Automatic annotation (TrEMBL), chain A:
UniProt protein name: ABC transporter permease
Signal peptide, first to last residue: none
Keyword Nucleotidyltransferase included in the entry's annotation: no
Record bears the keyword Ribonucleoprotein: no
Lineage per the UniProt record: Bacteria, Pseudomonadati, Bacteroidota, Bacteroidia, Marinilabiliales
Pfam families: ABC2_membrane_2 (PF12679)
Transmembrane regions: 20-37, 49-68, 88-112, 124-149, 161-181, 201-227, 233-252
Source organism, top-level taxon: Bacteria
Keywords for the protein's UniProt record, in alphabetical order: Membrane, Transmembrane, Transmembrane helix
Automatic annotation (TrEMBL), chain B:
UniProt entry keywords in alphabetical sequence: ATP-binding, Nucleotide-binding, Transport
Protein name: ABC transporter ATP-binding protein
InterPro entries documented for this protein: AAA+_ATPase (IPR003593), ABC_transporter-like_ATP-bd (IPR003439), ABC_Transporter_VariousFunc (IPR051782), P-loop_NTPase (IPR027417)
Gene Ontology molecular functions: ATP binding; ATP hydrolysis activity
Superkingdom, taxonomy of origin: Bacteria
Domain ABC transporter: start-end pairs: 2-226
PANTHER family, A to Z: ABC TRANSPORTER ATP-BINDING PROTEIN ALBC-RELATED
Organism, scientific name: Ancylomarina salipaludis
Length: 260, 235
């Protein structure tokens, strides 16, 4: 697995996509720091960018990578090596290369701005951590979709739909449900629905850490009241791990019987 | 060496292989022929474990290959389409495959043989189709495996490379290897193969030597014998 990981990573970090992605993040975070002036505000603005864009970029990048390396995957599959090693190696190569662009692109401007000596360092690290988790989750989802559908248009369509659903449609539905059932206690429902969406979980997690209840929104506030800060944080981290581990389990089962 | 037993494979409702039984022995060059969509590639891929059949089994040296991967140390495979990671250089790709297989390789000899010395430091995306196919050849022939499987090996190659390829094949056969290949070029089949397996709609329609096929059909050339074979099957 390590060999495949190494080569996928080398291949990916030299691609123009990674460089474009890095440049994009450098630009976005420098301009956010420049426009906000204040570092706390910059972190919160950055959070909104990250929650929207990381899943999108991971989705697009994951599908492109999987479709482009199809024939190469075939070559690897014909070599004396386990299927599990090939796909886990490729997946981690993909996720780690995306994460490197992200860490460098967001990290450098904030380091130059002096984040390391600032009291906001821990909040910034949480932001990076959530970005990394979302990177891993969404690249995994689109990797799996692209593996399942040989038709690129179907694969891209479905991956993008997953992103759109999780980042925009889901919140709309959540809001509608909460309005419809206004006169009933909806806390449990709100918590359950939040646990089922990694982007919402990421948002709640950052909010709980930053302790800015004004920005929490309904689900964040429910989390806060229901569990308290630390329990809420642990629960969201646990749910995010399930979001990562369960798809990996499905992936490993699926590749056993997949034809190439 | 390789035994295929009652192998059946369907993609959804499309039955690609129907109860195929074949024995493939060493020291032979075997051509798998058949019209487009007759199941040639699926058959090859079942031997490699890329395609997983619904019924039947493939045995490599009397051992079932289901769920196994170590037996592939003894197989070299040349896939049909030579597309590689775009940003890797030729040398890096060769190093990658060597790294994975951990077997003795004669890559330098083959690089010279196919005249690839000046392409080694180029990224794979900048290579022409024929040059990629030559790289593909180096990857397939650089290990000393007892079984070599080639899926349409001559696609994109120039005449010089094709004649080098044929020479190489003869040398490998002389070492007592089993070589299996698919192609649509009948002159190549007539020239180099010892045995033909003719697939039609997932069935083995003919198995035997080139001479058998020609005699059976009463024609003088392989090309017309094959055409007769296909036409008779539809009659």
């Amino acid at each position: 697995m390590l060999k495949i990981f190494k080569y996928s990573l080398f291949d990916l970090i030299r691609s123009n996509w990674s460089i474009a992605y890095l440049a994009f993040y450098l630009m976005v975070s420098s301009s956010i720091i420049y426009m906000n002036g204040d570092i706390t505000k910059s972190i919160i603005s950055m959070m909104n960018v990250i929650l929207l864009l990381i899943p999108l970029v991971a989705t697009v990048f994951g599908a492109i990578y999987m479709y482009n390396s199809r024939e190469f995957t075939e070559l690897l599959l014909s070599q004396p090596i386990k299927r599990k090693s090939i796909f886990l190696g490729q997946y981690f190569g993909l996720a780690v290369s995306l994460s490197l662009s992200f860490i460098l692109g967001v990290g450098l401007p904030f380091i130059i701005r002096g984040i390391i000596t600032s009291p906001e360092l821990s909040n910034f690290l949480v932001l990076i951590g959530v970005g990394l988790i979302l990177n891993f989750i969404f690249s995994l989802l689109s990797f799996m979709v692209a593996l399942r559908f040989e038709n690129r248009i179907k694969g891209f369509g479905l991956s993008l739909f997953i992103w759109l659903f999780m980042s925009i449609i889901y919140d709309g539905i959540l809001l509608l449900i909460l309005i419809w059932f206004e006169s009933y206690p909806t806390e449990n429902l709100a918590i359950t629905l939040t646990l089922m969406n990694p982007i919402d979980l990421g948002r709640v997690l950052i909010m709980l850490f930053l302790d800015t209840s004004a920005l929490m929104g309904y689900t964040g506030a429910v989390f806060y009241n229901f569990f308290g800060v630390w329990q809420g944080i642990l629960l969201s981290i646990a749910a995010l791990s399930v979001w990562l581990l369960f798809p990996i389990y499905i992936l490993l089962r699926y590749i056993k019987k997949k034809d190439f | 060496m390789i035994r295929i037993e009652n192998l059946s494979k369907a993609y959804h409702k499309n039955q690609v292989l129907k109860d195929v039984n074949i024995k493939l022995d060493s020291n032979k060059i075997i051509a798998i022929l058949g019209p487009n969509g007759s199941g040639k590639t699926t058959l090859i891929k079942s031997i490699l474990g890329l395609v997983i059949a619904q019924e039947g089994d493939v045995k490599f040296n009397d051992q079932s290959i289901v769920g196994e991967w170590e037996y592939r140390k003894q197989i070299s495979y040349l896939p049909q389409i030579a597309r590689f990671p775009e940003n890797l250089k030729v040398l890096e790709l060769i190093a990658l495959v060597k790294d994975i297989r951990q077997q003795e390789a004669r890559d330098n000899e083959l690089i010279q043989y196919f005249g690839l010395e000046n392409e080694l430091k180029k990224p794979l995306r900048n290579l022409s189709g024929g040059t990629r196919q030559k790289v593909n050849m180096v990857l397939a022939f650089m290990f000393d495996s007892p079984v070599i499987i080639l899926d349409e090996p001559t696609v994109g190659l120039d005449p010089v490379a094709i004649s080098r390829f044929k020479e190489l094949l003869e040398r490998e056969k002389a070492k007592g290897k089993l070589i299996i290949f698919t192609t649509h070029i009948m002159s190549l089949v007539q020239e180099i193969s010892d045995e033909i397996i003719f697939l039609l709609e997932g069935d083995i329609y003919f198995q035997g030597s080139v001479q058998d096929l020609i005699n059976q059909n009463g024609s003088t050339k392989l090309e017309s014998a094959i055409t007769n074979l296909i036409e008779n099957s539809h009659a």
